């Protein structure tokens, strides 16, 4: 149907071959014209049975008829596909639905907010009966109306064939990811096939350990700025703060320095670019929850769609300007150079994400275009700020709830830095924080993915227990039981970057501050990342250096 409409064309045929033919004179009013349609495909043959259109009114009526037929055809296809999917997925467990048409639409929202009476943040068991997930199986299927079908898997053995499959057949779902495409383009997150393979190879050097060592210095400096601001606020009597707000600014500050070598000062003053990134993340989530806005034609004409376009323009202009300026600088000055520590001689060295992308070449000597670099950089900024900020915030919250673990982490960090003239966490220090790393992993293990809350894999998954990541306790665990960065060929390329940043920020924060639970009940809110309704508030108490 869409194919037929796409190839439809309107042309006008005069009663004679010459448009200037008239009934006795050359005035336009004396000329008569017969309008006809030339349509390809099934629709064209059907409409060909209609009499020729002789006026604009009949043309309008015929246009409405075409639209009605197209809409009817589209609805029929959706309902037929829904029925076909229901038959094919009968092998999966099926939780009770609202009705045959809506399926589980609307029930999922009840799973996005939760708490427990003790004040902790525990997810309702996904593999046990509940009002929203009443299946006692490691998998089940949800029908989100007659439009979308969602299969949910909660066991490593079930997800292994999917995660380890070749990237050639592991395509991203356009249901949600398609909403990000106008913003992120064909970056690693959204691309597939040969395009993805080529970009993955070209981007891998950007996350080499030699580059990450430079980034660790940036993590320290951005954290220092955040902590200096916290001390000023505490001195003014403002000791309780929303961790999401504070830490997301810090991670954006770090990313801008790592990606562009750009000091935005965003932790201290507003930034149009930062505001645009926040707005885009919010608008993508809103669009996901509004079914009518899934239709591009309607969304781009809505106020939200127009705001999305404006925010995209701000982000894209910022990135494009930096890329073009840096490319011109490299052409004029050559690759960046700096002294090595061992010999003192000068050698070429990559300094940030943009430098790596600008100088990357494939096997044929071809690099990335400015548009491709812009897509990868925008993807890096999107994936790297909110996810890491959420992780750090929830780590600090859980350690605030469990002071015994917080004290043990602090003792480990203080022992590591004892006798030093500086508090800076170095690259080699990251592997010498075993218990702190266990606390970081425990925050991610049973809390983000359904598979991480499977009691068959994780005993007592509702309990915050870092010891489950002790080497002895991890020996017999399936390899895909813990996948905070996914697994297989399409795993997160920035996982070492994220873990390094979390270790640095958590370590410095616990050395300098005592964190305790803040105001009000905390209710988790599942959005693009895991948030808290009304913010995640913690009380900060500065600690003097030991």
Biggest beta sheet attributes: 3 strands, antiparallel
Spatial sequence of strands, sheet with the most strands: 3-10-11
Percent helix among the residues?
A: 40-55%
How large is the count of helical segments?
17
Overall pLDDT confidence: 80
Structural class: mainly alpha
Flag low-confidence runs.
1-40, 110-136, 338-350
Query: What is the overall shape?
Result: globular
What is the multimeric organization of the chains shown? single chain
For the terminal residues, how far apart are their CA atoms? 73 Å
SSE sequence, one letter per element: HEEHHEEEHHHHEHHHHEEHHHHHHEEEE
Strand residues, percent: 5-15%
Keywords: Heme, Iron, Metal-binding, Monooxygenase, Oxidoreductase
EC number: 1.14.14.14
Enzyme class: oxidoreductase
Pfam families: p450 (PF00067)
Describe, in plain words, how this protein is organized in 3D.
It comes from Aldrovandia affinis. Its cofactor is heme. It is an enzyme of class 1 (oxidoreductase). Pfam families: p450 (PF00067). The protein has 546 residues and is mainly alpha-helical. It contains 17 helices and 12 strands. A 3-stranded antiparallel sheet has the order 3-10-11. A 3-stranded antiparallel sheet has the order 6-12-9. Strands 1-2 form a two-stranded antiparallel sheet. The N and C termini lie far apart (73 Å).
């Amino acid at each position: 149907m869409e194919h037929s409409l796409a190839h439809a064309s309107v042309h006008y045929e005069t009663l004679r071959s010459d448009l200037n033919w008239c009934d006795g004179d050359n005035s336009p009013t004396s000329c008569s014209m017969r309008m006809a349609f030339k349509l390809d495909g099934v629709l064209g043959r059907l409409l060909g049975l209609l009499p020729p259109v002789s006026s604009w009114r009949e043309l309008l009526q015929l246009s409405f008829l075409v639209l009605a037929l197209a809409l009817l055809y589209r609805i029929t296809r959706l309902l037929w596909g829904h029925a076909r999917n229901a038959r094919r997925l009968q092998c999966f467990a099926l939780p009770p639905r609202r009705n045959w048409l809506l399926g589980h639409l609307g029930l999922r929202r009840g799973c996005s907010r939760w708490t427990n009476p003790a004040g902790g943040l525990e997810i309702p068991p996904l593999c046990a009966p509940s009002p929203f997930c009443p299946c006692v199986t490691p998998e089940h299927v949800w029908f989100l109306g007659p439009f979308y079908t969602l299969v949910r898997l909660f066991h490593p053995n079930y997800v292994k064939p999917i995660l380890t499959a070749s990237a050639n057949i592991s395509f991203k779902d356009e249901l949600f990811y398609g909403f990000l495409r106008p913003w992120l383009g064909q970056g690693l997150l959204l691309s597939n096939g040969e395009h993805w393979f080529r970009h993955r190879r070209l981007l891998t050097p950007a996350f080499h350990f030699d580059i990450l060592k430079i980034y660790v210095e940036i993590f320290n400096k951005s954290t220092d700025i955040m902590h200096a601001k916290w001390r000023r606020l505490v001195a003014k009597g403002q000791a309780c703060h929303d961790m999401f707000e504070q830490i997301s600014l810090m991670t954006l500050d770090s990313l801008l320095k790592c990606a562009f070598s750009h000091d935005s000062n965003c932790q201290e003053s507003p930034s149009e670019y930062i505001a645009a990134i926040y707005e885009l993340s919010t608008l993508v989530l809103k669009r996901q929850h509004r079914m009518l806005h899934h239709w591009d034609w309607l969304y781009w004409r809505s106020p939200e769609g127009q705001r999305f376009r404006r925010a995209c323009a701000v982000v894209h202009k910022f990135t494009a300007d930096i890329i073009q300026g840096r490319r011109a600088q490299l052409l004029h000055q050559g690759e960046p150079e700096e002294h090595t520590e061992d010999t003192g001689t000068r050698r070429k060295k990559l300094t940030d994400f943009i430098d790596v992308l600008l100088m990357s070449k494939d096997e044929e000597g071809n690099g990335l275009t400015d548009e491709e670099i812009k897509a990868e950089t925008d993807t890096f900024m999107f994936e790297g700020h909110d996810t890491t900020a959420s992780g750090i915030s929830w780590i600090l919250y859980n350690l605030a709830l469990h002071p015994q673990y917080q004290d043990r982490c602090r003792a480990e960090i203080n022992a590591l830095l004892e006798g030093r003239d500086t508090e800076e966490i170095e690259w080699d220090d990251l592997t010498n924080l075993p218990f702190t790393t266990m606390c970081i992993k425990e925050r991610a293990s049973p809390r983000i993915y359904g598979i991480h809350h499977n009691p068959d894999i994780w005993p007592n998954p509702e309990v915050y227990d870092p010891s489950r990541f002790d080497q002895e306790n991890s020996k017999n665990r399936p390899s895909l039981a813990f996948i905070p960065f996914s697994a297989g060929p399409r795993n997160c390329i920035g996982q070492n970057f994220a873990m390094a940043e979390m270790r640095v920020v958590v370590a410095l924060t616990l050395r300098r501050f005592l964190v305790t639970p803040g105001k009000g009940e905390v209710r988790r809110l599942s959005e693009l990342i895991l948030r808290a309704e009304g913010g995640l508030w913690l009380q900060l108490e500065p600690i003097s250096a030991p």
